[in-house]
Design brief:
By secondary structure, the chain is an alpha/beta fold. 28% of the residues lie in helices and 22% in strands.
């Protein structure tokens, strides 16, 4: 059954810094920070969390339904998504603003500095989650990084429509205060974050991943740990799902979105959370070996490789 993917659609400008950020930034001088990085390579890719998740879910054999926004320059992206066979009926088209733009610089240790212009994404809330009378087929959803109002409204609307969803605040986590995060945590079925975001969420709410997993509505909390895999918290108990060694490390952009597509794919099929996470780790290792978030191909054998 289809999965509703609420999140950003964006064009990514990806550059590589051949040095290390840590060698260019003086910790005792960050109050007057003024740095410039020479980036000899540059690529423009299709991106945005919703687009990346949908790309992976479609490639796995799922049925993504994207709820996001494109701007006046979005025709090419829309045609691309239609070319996958994904459902684009809920994509909002803004008549004035440009599609969101993400500028990502990665250093030799795969650390990233990102600048993001929201553009049309800031109007994504203008298209609501459809009622069950219109879309009774939606089995699961995800609230991925998007416009603040869109994330807030879509989370409540999915809960009202009875669509179980993953809360994945990502880089938009700072846009919500502790009380607002606690309210959304009270609606979500699952929570996904990387290790840094998990610490920030705990700082905002006073709730650790273990504590969040004890909420009656939360079936699991997923904390990704890059090449180390991920930890799962279910009813206060921790399970570590080991990482998968990548054949080569080329570009980490979109690895988290690939992982989340695997969660949606498995959860919609009734898999256990550890099995979903294991697929996510395999998919992340596959993605990191290719440049850009939507250029890798997925062998169907990857799904059953336990």
């Amino acid at each position: 059954m289809p999965a509703l993917i609420c999140g950003s659609l964006a064009y990514d400008t990806i550059t590589t810094f051949p040095g290390r950020f840590a060698e260019q930034i003086m910790p005792d001088q960050v109050h007057i920070l003024n740095v410039s990085f020479l980036v000899p390579t540059l690529r423009r890719e299709y991106g945005g969390c919703a687009g990346n998740i949908a790309y992976n879910l479609q490639a796995l054999g799922g049925q993504p339904v994207i709820l996001g926004a494109l701007g006046v320059d979005g025709n090419e992206y829309l045609a691309r998504v239609k070319g996958w066979g994904a459902d684009t009926s809920l994509i909002y088209r803004d008549a004035e603003l440009h599609t969101a733009q993400c500028h990502i610089t990665t250093d030799r240790d795969n650390n990233q500095i990102t600048a993001f212009h929201p553009g049309a994404m800031s109007h994504a809330h203008q298209l609501p989650v459809p009622p069950r009378s219109v879309r009774s087929d939606l089995a699961i959803g995800i609230i991925a990084p998007d416009g603040r109002d869109a994330m807030w409204q879509h989370a409540h609307q999915m809960h009202e429509q009875g669509v179980p969803f993953i809360f994945d605040p990502g880089q938009q986590l700072p846009q919500f205060n502790g009380q607002e995060h606690q309210e959304i945590l009270g609606l979500a079925g699952w929570v996904a974050a990387n290790d840094y975001e998990a610490k920030m969420l705990e700082e905002r709410t006073g709730e650790s991943p273990q504590t969040i997993s004890m909420r009656p509505n939360v079936k699991g909390v997923i904390v990704t740990l890059a090449e180390q895999g991920c930890e799962l918290w279910m009813r206060g108990e921790r399970t570590l799902v080991p990482g998968v060694k990548a054949e080569r490390v080329v570009d980490p952009t979109g690895c988290g979105d690939a992982f989340r597509a695997a969660l949606l794919y498995g959860l919609e099929r009734g898999w256990s959370l550890p099995r979903c996470a294991a697929l996510g780790n395999r998919l992340g290792a596959l993605k990191i070996a290719e440049r850009g978030p939507q250029n890798h191909t997925i062998d169907p054998a990857l799904i059953g490789a336990d």
